[in-house]
Amino acid sequence: MLFVGIDLAAEARRTGVAVVREDGALSLEQVRVGGSDEDLVAAVEAADRTGVDVPLGWPAPFVDLVRAHAAGTLSAPASTDSAWRRDLAMRTTDREVHRRTGITPLSVSTDRIAYPALRWAGLEARLRERGIDVARDGSGVVFEVYPAAALHCWSLTHRGYKGAQNAPGRSALAAELVEKTPWLDWNGYRDLCVRDDNALDAVVAALITREAFLGSCEPPTDENREVARQEGWIWLPGTSPTPPTMR
Question: Using N-to-C axis directions, what is the helix angle for 37-46 and 114-129, rounded to 10°?
Fold first, then answer.
């Protein structure tokens, strides 16, 4: 089986892509930084499952507000305080991630993460036109993943490893991952992951994707399933990655 992880950036040159192959053993078949729209569509088509590190949708209340505001029919809120704005800024899954991990995901409504999210919206449409099930709740072939939160679940370094200035933290995290997943053949890609956090996050995204496929991640509850279909759902793994022999 092939599990693809995509650390999606707004620009192709900063997008990380990793391919994990499982055929009794587990190995990194490819890791690269740089992925055009065409590259990413082809990767999703070739994979059994793909994990994308980007919000797959926007908060439903935010979508409703933008629609009503555009039409000039927005009802005046009782208050525009922080609680009102928080409901517009955070998705249901964002709140669930915070509840479970204490980590607050970037807001796709109010932060720069919206730029790669807009790119994914276009890619989702292209994949859907090709007949690929890209349901945002993970019931199709795509999972929304969040490497920092997954690393926290695995009790690994999840902060201070991004950017050129944090190469030592990235090296330490790569070493932790090697220790945590001794059954994963890195196939010579560890150095690239130490050099570039986009590559490292793509590898983590692929590993989370495998966990989600194996049923080791927390799915939307019945109560949250409908909103997850619109907003997306971040798949958080258990306390440790699953070795191949435990399947």
Answer: 60
pLDDT above 90 covers a percentage of the chain that reads: 98
Give the gyration radius of the chain's Cα atoms: 18
Element (H, E) at 115: helix 114-129
Q: How many CA atoms lie within 13 A of 124 on its CB side?
A: 23
Residue-wise burial string across 194-220, b where 16 or more C-beta atoms lie within 10 A, e elsewhere: bebbbbbbbbbbbbbbbbbbbebbbbb
Strands (E), the chain: 2-7, 16-22, 26-33, 49-52, 142-144, 184-185
CA distances from residue 154 to 37, 55, 81, 207, 237 in whole angstroms, order as listed: 31, 21, 36, 12, 8
Q: What is the pLDDT of residues 190-201, one digit of tens each?
A: 999 999 999 999
Can you tell me whether residue 236 is helix, strand or coil?
Answer: coil
pLDDT of residue 246: 54
| pTM score of the predicted model | 0.96
DSSP string, 44-71: HHH-SEEEESS--S--HHHHHHHHHHHH
Q: How confident is the model at residue 245 (pLDDT cuts 50, 70, 90)?
A: confident
Q: Are 206 and 142 a contacting pair, CB within 8 Å?
A: no
What single letter denotes the amino acid at residue 137?
Answer: D
**Domain ranges, ordered by start, for the chain:** 2-246
* CB 44 within 8 Å of CB 4: yes
64-111 per-position pLDDT tens digit: 999 999 999 999 999 999 999 999 999 999 999 999 999 999 999 999
